[in-house]
Amino acid sequence: MGYNKRHNMISRYKYRELTWVDVESPTSEEVRGLMEEFDIHPIVADELLGPSLRPKVDSYENFIYLILHFPAVHHSHRRKEQEVDFIIGKKFLITVRYELLDPLHKFSKVFEVNSILDKSDIGEHAGFLFFYMIRKIYSSLGHELSVIGEMLRDIEEKIFLGEEREMVEELSVIHRDVLEFHRALRMHRSVLQSLSLTCDTFFGSGFRHYTENIIGEYLKVEELLQDQKEMVGELRSTNDSLLSTKTNEIMKVLTVTAFTILPATLIGQIFGMSTDHLPLMSDPRGFWIVLGIMGVVALLTFLYFKSKKWL
User: How many domains is the chain partitioned into structurally?
Assistant: First the structure.
């Protein structure tokens, strides 16, 4: 039978002999309590009081200490990266985080229900609990990247429908999200490989299949992320090219228009000079003659540009 207790920012779940403690932004008193209950090394206890700069894995006599950073998929989060500290013992798992992590929250609901119904297939030690948990997190990240892929396909259609200018901001936002994914996950491969070796010693070689599966789940996310990075780059390049082509066409039309009007304008200014004996000014049809000359010159200039294929 499973149960869930909530005290401050600590959630506790139990299934048979396994205990999972989930802690958000722990206080010194809460960390001290965990330290005493689960025999956590003082160095690790000190690190739990605040976020760490880099992911890592350390092995201790009675547990494995793992730090991983995940991208903040919702911009309401205070940090661009969400850290989770995993303390993996033989019969307990402690997760320490500093913001709400949706995949962990969803996993807790599934874990609690399965525990109550006694239908969980979790193995005999906490390594299996960690396995199902981290797989859930990577699956969630893969789903988020798939959503980004759908957004990119929608943007691609709009680009070729003539909405290049509107898509500049959309592509910039997605490019930022993809970069944040990359920054958060860039160290996962090496850390997970180190974790696999550590688990061989701590849980035995029989657990290797599960650690390899974890690496495989990460590699799926990494491959999907690389695809999205390339797609964003190609769409930005295409969008910039189309915008540049449109801008060049507009500038060409404006330039040709200016050069077409210039000779006619010059003729008009000449005949507008206040001087004696200006040709055609004494002729009653002078205005129309000058206007006709201006029109012919403008037309000839236009045809010249047309013959050069500048229009």
Answer: 2
Arithmetic mean of pLDDT over the chain: 82
Same domain, 224 and 271: no
Rg of the chain on CA atoms, in Å:
34
Q: Name the CA dihedral angle for 250, 255, 257, 259, rounded to a multiple of 10 degrees.
A: -170
Give yes or no: residues 41 and 152 share one domain.
Answer: yes
Burial environment of residue 24 by CB neighbours within 10 A (0 to 12, 13 to 18, 19 or more): middle
* Alpha-carbon distance values, 180 to 7, 94, 102, 113, 138 (Å): 33, 26, 17, 33, 15
pTM assigned to the model = 0.75
Query: In this structure, what CATH number is given to the domain that contains residue 53?
Result: 3.30.460.20
In sequence order, which residues have a C-beta less than 8 Å from that of residue 4 and are 6 or more positions away?
11, 12, 13, 108, 112
For residues 140 and 253, state if they share a domain: no
| 218 and 127 part of one domain | yes
- The residue segments making up the domain with residue 301 are 249-307
In tens, the pLDDT along 39-80 reads 999 999 999 998 888 999 999 999 999 999 999 866 544 567
Average pLDDT over residues 230-244: 87
Distance between alpha carbon 79 and the CA centroid of its chain, in Å? 14
